[in-house]
Give the backbone structure.
Amino acid sequence: MSKLLLSTKNTELIPVEISDAEFIYSLRIDSRLNKHISSINGTIIDQAKWIEDYKKREKNNEEFYFIIKRTDNDKKIGTIRLYDITKDNGFCWGSWILNEDKMKSSAIESAYLIYKFGFFHKKYKFSYFQVDKKNKEVIAFHKKTGAAIIKEDEVNYHFEFHMENFIKLKEKYSKYI
């Protein structure tokens, strides 16, 4: 991916590289952080191989995976990913993990940045994603940002988020942007 600046006051998104495998693996195996994400099998080497394969998908504009960093100390604090781009120009996002080094505003800033990337840099029309019904904190977060539940199944709520939601989000949280 070409040099793309995705940053807010406290947070920056940096494209994932193979050298990030150990950090990503450490997040995904941390039992405090992985309750509501897909489980991982394997080793750091397997994670590096996954990233190597992912970089091909990135090159083909099929998905985009980022490290979330703090701007004050350059510390890596998490991951976020845009994927499953639809024929009608929608995008899903997830693989969203923030560790204990995050700031109070890291969640809103990283969500803002992934939406900015999807809507402005890639010109997608809407975002969709699923959240485990047990993940009450993340459900509340998405409702607060303007995402709407469009359906549910036994396990997940299915959300959508549109450009007009993004504009309101930007206004509401302008002090962080």
